[in-house]
């Protein structure tokens, strides 16, 4: 039987790609498309948003009303909206795939609470390449150890509203964990003025914003006499959308819990 998908943030940059990616998969059916209350897109046909012509699904702002017709909700919106949506999905027993970044600790706690009742995948980056890169970063950090300084550099389009990117933060967390550090204690966000010499135990983050960059991430391991860089560059949002849609098929079969894309790809070690 077809898996019925609802997309929250359907009119956004990711939402439009998610509509297209859902419609690529025969086993999935786009059953609902949601936008924020007051959006000019309410009532528009979701197929038009993806440039595919009418498909008979009109954009709505009422998630609780459509939840009984859904198997999985994919949410790429804003942190506050994602928290409200995960609570509604937990209430209705509908699984979720969440791509929203920029959540604070309290907002993440709401996701954990909801995941006691429903399966939730939350990943800062749904590309297969970035997910594999996380494993490579852990291996590199363990091998290079504390002798190498770690800096994370990311670039995104001019419209992005959170910084550093969720992916950069996740990369920093993975490296910190592999080095036995806690990112909350060792992160340095940008530098300016009389900074003093670099503290070897820090992990630095640099953010570039501009133009139409889809998403670039580089982690540098800088030693004395050599420098190693691990980079990923996304050239199309469809790579994120296809990963999220793949996660939607996967999450439906899972027990309640909080998962990420490494779980979806079976890359979780231990
Ligand atoms: N995990 C991943 O692979 C990726 C994550 N993202 C993240 O996804 C989020 C969205 O990114 P974009 O699509 O570029 O942003 P966007 O601003 O183009 O789209 C967000 C959409 O959500 C809608 N929205 C806001 N509140 C809503 C609500 N209560 N109900 C339904 N819709 C609501 C907005 O009206 C907008 O159309 C960001 O946090 C971004 O960082 C983006 C790309 C990949
Ligand atoms: O906002 C974006 O565009 C992206 N956001 C995600 C992030 O914050 O890491 C993933 C991707 O890089 C694109």
Automatic annotation (TrEMBL):
NAD(+) binds at residues 9-14, 35, 99-101, 123-126. Residues 3-126 form the Dihydrodipicolinate reductase N-terminal domain. It is found in: Cytoplasm. GO terms for molecular function: 4-hydroxy-tetrahydrodipicolinate reductase; NAD binding; NADP binding; oxidoreductase activity, acting on CH or CH2 groups, NAD or NADP as acceptor. (S)-2,3,4,5-tetrahydrodipicolinate binds at residues 157, 166-167. GO terms for cellular component: cytosol. One of its GO terms (biological process) is diaminopimelate biosynthetic process. Keywords: Amino-acid biosynthesis, Cytoplasm, Diaminopimelate biosynthesis, Lysine biosynthesis, NAD, NADP, Oxidoreductase. Pathway: Amino-acid biosynthesis; L-lysine biosynthesis via DAP pathway; (S)-tetrahydrodipicolinate from L-aspartate: step 4/4. It is an enzyme of class 1 (oxidoreductase). The active site is at 156 (proton donor/acceptor), 160 (proton donor). It catalyses: (S)-2,3,4,5-tetrahydrodipicolinate + NAD(+) + H2O = (2S,4S)-4-hydroxy-2,3,4,5-tetrahydrodipicolinate + NADH + H(+); (S)-2,3,4,5-tetrahydrodipicolinate + NADP(+) + H2O = (2S,4S)-4-hydroxy-2,3,4,5-tetrahydrodipicolinate + NADPH + H(+). Its main location: cytoplasm. Its EC number is 1.17.1.8. NADP(+) binds at residue 36. Residues 129-265 form the Dihydrodipicolinate reductase C-terminal domain. Homotetramer. Belongs to the DapB family. Catalyzes the conversion of 4-hydroxy-tetrahydrodipicolinate (HTPA) to tetrahydrodipicolinate. This is 4-hydroxy-tetrahydrodipicolinate reductase. It comes from Aquisalimonas asiatica. The gene is dapB.
């Amino acid at each position: 039987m077809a898996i019925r998908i609802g997309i929250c943030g359907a009119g956004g940059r990711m939402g439009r790609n998610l509509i297209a990616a859902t419609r690529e998969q025969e086993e999935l059916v786009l059953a609902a498309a949601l936008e924020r209350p007051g959006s000019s897109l309410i009532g528009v046909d979701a197929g038009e948003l993806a440039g595919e012509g009418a498909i008979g699904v009109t954009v709505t702002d009422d998630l609780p009303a459509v939840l009984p017709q859904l198997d999985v909700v994919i949410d790429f919106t804003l942190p506050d909206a994602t928290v409200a949506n995960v609570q509604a999905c937990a209430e209705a027993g509908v699984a979720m795939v969440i791509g929203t970044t920029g959540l604070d600790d309290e907002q993440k706690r709401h996701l954990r609470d909801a995941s006691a009742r429903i399966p939730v995948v939350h990943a800062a980056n749904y590309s297969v390449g970035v997910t594999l890169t996380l494993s490579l970063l852990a291996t590199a950090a363990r091998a290079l150890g504390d002798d190498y300084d770690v800096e994370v550099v990311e670039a995104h389009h001019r419209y992005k509203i959170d910084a550093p990117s969720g992916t950069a933060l996740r990369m920093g967390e993975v490296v910190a964990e592999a080095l036995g550090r806690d990112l909350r204690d060792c992160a340095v966000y940008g530098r300016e003025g009389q900074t003093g010499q670099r503290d070897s135990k820090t992990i630095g983050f640099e953010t570039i914003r501009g133009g139409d960059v889809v998403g670039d991430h580089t982690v540098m391991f800088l030693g004395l006499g050599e420098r190693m860089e691990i980079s990923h560059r996304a050239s199309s949002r469809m790579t994120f959308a296809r990963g999220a849609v793949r996660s939607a098929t996967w999450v439906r079969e899972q027990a309640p819990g909080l998962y990420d894309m490494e779980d979806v790809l079976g890359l979780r070690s231990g």
